[in-house]
Amino acid sequence: LTNENGARYRFAYDVLDRLVAESGFDRKLTAYHYNAGNELVQQSEYGDDASVAAKLMAQYGGQPVKSTDRTPLSDGFKDKTPLRITEFQRDILGRLTQTLAHDSTGKVQETAYHYDPNGNLVRAANAHSITCFDYNPNGQLIGQHHWKVPTQEENARNGLIATDWRDPQYDMLFQPVTNSIRYHYDFNGNRT
User: Alpha-carbon torsion 77, 80, 84, 90, what sign?
Assistant: First the structure.
């Protein structure tokens, strides 16, 4: 893709037609890694090093690479530290159960996902907020509820027990601070 300023957004795919790299208009590079089941397991975000981005895009995209840049891709990245690495963990059915995002300073942001017996996503939570989803018997989304996770200090100030955002049993304690959206459907199943 080329924008009005002539900047390019590039995508590179492997032989299985999976997105393996992208270089944005800002030349920031993102690389994607998959498991044997073709599921995304890791995303690595690099800075805006144009030479590394061009090399990666050429090698992944099957384009000719200048003779001065023919070193293997791994050689070009072994001394590069990603700004952020996100790991994607899945259950045996391939559903996303957890993401762990590591930044270059060592901070980790964890997000956990829960599903109902029908495979519908019912809860996505991290240390700062929780979002829950309701479905009708047809599997259509009918409600979305979002709330901020209180800090330990806020819990103590409000006389609440210490909670763990990963555990859904504490969700009812946060109900008073919930933002909700409701969805309705007509007889044909169209959201109204």
Answer: positive
Q: Give the global pTM.
A: 0.76
Cβ-count burial 83-112 (b if 16+ within 10 Å, e if not)? bebbbbebeeeeebbebebbeeeeeeeebb
Domain-wise residue ranges, the chain = 1-84, 107-192
The string of pLDDT tens digits covering residues 125-183 is 998 899 999 999 999 999 999 988 888 888 788 777 777 778 787 777 666 667 889 99
Strands of the sheet with 29-34, listed across from one edge: 10-13, 19-23, 29-34, 40-45, 84-90, 96-103, 108-115, 121-126, 129-135, 141-148, 179-182
**Domain over 107-192 is classified CATH 1.10.860:** no
Burial of 186 (0-12, 13-18, 19+ CB in 10 A): exposed
Question: How far is it, in rounded angstroms, from Cα 122 to Cα 128?
Answer: 17
Beta strands in the chain (DSSP E): 10-13, 19-23, 29-34, 40-45, 84-90, 96-103, 108-115, 121-126, 129-135, 141-148, 179-182
Give the three-class secondary structure for 61: helix
H/E element holding 59? helix 50-61
Cα–Cα separations (whole angstroms), residue 99 to 19, 86, 89, 90, 94: 19, 7, 6, 9, 13
Beta bridge partners, 99, equal 88, 111
